[in-house]
Amino acid sequence: MFGGLVIPVNSPHLRKSGSRPVVSEPVQFPGANEVENGVDEGVLYSTEANDLKSATMPINAIAIIPSPVLLWRFKVLFFLVWGFICCKIGWDSVTRMNANKRDLFLYEAFLYYNPLLLATLMVWLWGINLWFFSKGGVNYPKIFDLDQNHLTHREVWKCATWMTIIAPTSMTAYIFLYSQGEVSYAASQPVLLYAAVVMVLIFPSDIFYFSSRYYFLRTLWRIVFPLQAISFSDFFLADILTSMVKVFSDLERSVCRMVHRQVATIAWLEADSVCGSHSVAIPLALVLPYLFRLNQCLRQYKDTGEKTALLNALKYSTAVPVIFLSALKYHVSPERWTNLYRPLWLMSSVVNSQYSFYWDVTRDWDLSGFTRIFKFSKPHLLSHLLHGRRWVYFWVSGSNLVLRCTWTYKLSAHLRHNHLTVFTIAALEIFRRFQWIFFRIENEWNKINSKSHIQLSVDDDMPNEGEKLLHSNPHSV
Question: CA-to-CA distance for 182 and 110, rounded, in angstroms?
Answer without folding.
Answer: 19
